[in-house]
Fold this protein.
Amino acid sequence: MSPRLGLPGLRRKPASSPDTVADAAGEIAAIDSTSDHAIDAEILATSEPAAAAPSEPADAEKPDATDAPAATSPAHGLALLAEYKRAILTWVQDDGYPVNVDIEIEVRPDDGVVRFTGPAGFQVPPGAVVALTGSHIRVLSGGGFDQRSHVTLWGVPSTRPRGRFALSPDRVWAWDEHDLPLPAAYERGLPKARRFFEALSEERGEPIRPRVSTAMLLIRATRAPFLTATFAPVLLGLAVAARTGIFDPLTAVITLLAASSVHLGLNVANDVFDTLQGADDANTTPTKFSGGSRVLQNALVSIREMSMLAAGCYGVAIALGLILLILRFSPELVAIAALGLFISVAYTMPPLKLVYRGLGEISTAIGFGPVMLLGTYVVQSRGVISAEAALLSVPIALFVAMILYVNEIPDRAGDSKAGKRTLPVRWSKAAVIRGFDWSVTGAFAALAVGVAVGILPAWTSLMLVAIPLARRVHAGLVAAYDNPYELTDAMASNIRLHLVAGLLLLAGYLLAIAGHTYLGLNPFFV
């Protein structure tokens, strides 16, 4: 495989709006000719702005506890660069365009210098600040990369005879994914990237942000894929009502839309208040399942825009709720709706901040269990409370609470710094895993008891098929508890556990309804 080289004389016209925050980090192409492997663009997400980046405010260079890996010493940087025979030389021309050229280097750590010959066809401006970058990456045969490392040295080179230069670096930045995984390095670099956009916006006189399609931005900001946590209890509430012979399609649709709107509003509001209170900024190990949507941290939207989106979602939910009250008024529905709205608003909003007080799991269990499932049934039944619906909400409540619970595990360091005292922050690893085990055991036990005493249809025992999935989550917690990125498999399985359990319960109800309707079968064991 031939290495990919930085194109000599590459000129990039400054864009009016970079596509991603990673673009704000600069564009540096580099190779490791000794290993014949090329650097991948993904590494750019961790790179500091090259010399071509616009100047930041005076305070932008101040150390930040959440910034990307701290600059190392010149001596250490030279030692790291000495591992490479070639590097990328970067500087800014008088016309403002950056130049990136692949060159051969000679590093002399004992002398504190790097020697190189000026690239043919180019003139390094006298007194210009240049950067020398060495990078390494290994391409895996099955796809992906590992062994990524990167070092950049900055300084003003002195001229030597025969077009030679000597650089004594005055600033160094280095990263090795063995010491700091790439996602964490990216997150630590976000404060600096945001300052870049702020400086660029001030320079241009208009807001400059990364660009994401509106549809994708809405999906990310609202975390819409997690709506399965709403669909399961609402559809099961409708299934319980249908089994008893009551079903109104119009209010069923309105109920699903209202519950979904509350859920989306909760997700967005959670991001707003976690950002305002520092929890999401303190979290440098988010994953695709934890740590919030990150749209605020990635400067994709403003706090004001996210607040308006949350208000819009809640506004839609309230409007649909009022329609349901007009169509299906009952004191029971008013009480359940009020409780659901209270939990949603108090979840992260001061002064209650339930999730900050270790009450997030309980709040989630109540909101996505009895409130949604029993509330859906009450809409259909015009206020009649059902023991069947109440008991069925228990396993769903416990499974959805475990989604939050497990997803909080990789966030515990950042949450602790921000004073967000979730259960994984408060408890030891062993206690957290026991908490998961007891919760899922309780979910399966509630189902078994409900079927055994004749409250739940016999077909709902299909949910027991999900037990191996719960065991897989347990094994993942034991093996990867302290590694946020390895833990993603367990988190994915845990989310799947809630979804599969919900689908199996729904299938059980459909079979019970069909058996009774067409074959006259008793849906209960007793």
Q: What stands out?
A: Residues 488-519 form the longest helix (32 residues). Strands lie at 31-32, 37-38, 86-92, 98-108, 113-117, 130-139, 145-155, 158-160, 164-167, 171-176. The chain has two domains: 21-204, 214-519.
